[in-house]
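Researcher: I'm preparing a figure for a lab meeting and need a structural model of a single chain. I don't have an experimental structure, so a prediction will have to do for now. The sequence is pasted below. Please return the structure as tokens so I can convert it later.
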Amino acid sequence: MSKDLSLADLLSAADPALMITDEELDHSRDRSRSFVNSDVTHIAVGGSVHTFHRTPAKRHWGRFAAAGLALAAVAACVFVASSLVTGPVNTVAAPSVTAMATPSDAGKSSLAGPTVSDSFGNVDYYTTVSGDTVAAVAASFHITEKEIAEFNGLQPVNALAPNTKLRLIPAPGPIYGAKGNATVDGNGIPTSYVVEPKDTLGGITYRFGITEEQLAEANKVPYVYEKGNTYFLRAGKHIQLQKNPVDSRSGTGTAVTNSSGQTIFYTTVDGDSFDSLGYKFRSTTAQLLQYNPSLSADKPIPAGTRVRLIPGELKIDGAQGSFTADADGIPLTYTTAPGDTEGQISFRFGMPDLEWANRPLTGTDRVWYAFADLPTGEIAPGQTISLALNKPIHK
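Model: Understood. Here is the structure written out token by token.
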């Protein structure tokens, strides 16, 4: 097959009856990006409601100083619920805003001294060698000389004595936007934190030298900003700041994706665990257990286990209907049940492109299927709709 074939050509070659253009695929990708940043969904199992999130596109954020955290929080839609108890007014002036090391350059240094890194590879401590200067350390780790002085209680001097262990993250204790208590390990790496009222995402990530994406990964959630009126930052919540160690062999198994590129099955290898799968696919152990009844929390996951990463066969609140799948288990069609909504159907099957897989051939309607209640996205029951971009249902 020619390497010059586009993805649309490849799909058409796989199914000659399928007519799909590059423009349509671009539209589908836009829909996928919209889906992964859409509202929170939930699963009702055994009478209890568990909140789950969808996986977003990866985001890389620098570390930000505390000044301007409120602005950053507004920009990222990070707010503390108005029902939270108001904390004491902070009287400490916030330091100036400066970008700090990101995962792409964390752990890389032109200096010769030893470092101590967190579970993501961010360097939190550096021990000087002869000839090191504050300016050189600041340049190597992408922070400011002022911050090095503040983090370590140094006078503004350029020379550094050898064997000086320098902090590259703020000194222990509350700061503006992160006033809660943290635990640290024997190497001084922050490992967990209890959220206080009026804490901000920017304050927490700055204080502990991690990014929003790393914070999400540590807590096995797709994102940590406010979404769908659900707040990751809630007063009293105990959050993780680091990952548990996982086997170096983990995560190398075979993945099966649907037509939208969403991973719906993963076949494990030696070394995989609930933690490794959780960090890789942003799925909690509780989710994996619900999606895969054959798994047990107190037993290792055997190599060669095909793990489901979407609810799929598990009927959820708002997606109670039946479905068909191909030989690989990829869902193809779905028959709606009373109370089903677009959002929950999309979530159950990891299919963000319901609209594009069920668009009308004529007219101006967004989709051809009928709604029982348009404002809530409730679809009329008894309709068979497509769950696959490469096998759309057009009317």
